[in-house]
Amino acid sequence: MIDGYLLTKWVHILSSTVLFGTGLGTALQMFLAHREGNVRAIATVDRNVVRADWLCTLPSGIVQPISGLILIDFAHLDPFAPWLFLVYVLYSIAGLCWIIVVVLQLRMARVATDVASFGAVLPIGYWRMYRAWFWLGWPAFLSLVAIFVLMVFKPDL
Question: Which tens digits make up the pLDDT trace of 62-73?
Answer without folding.
Answer: 999 999 999 999
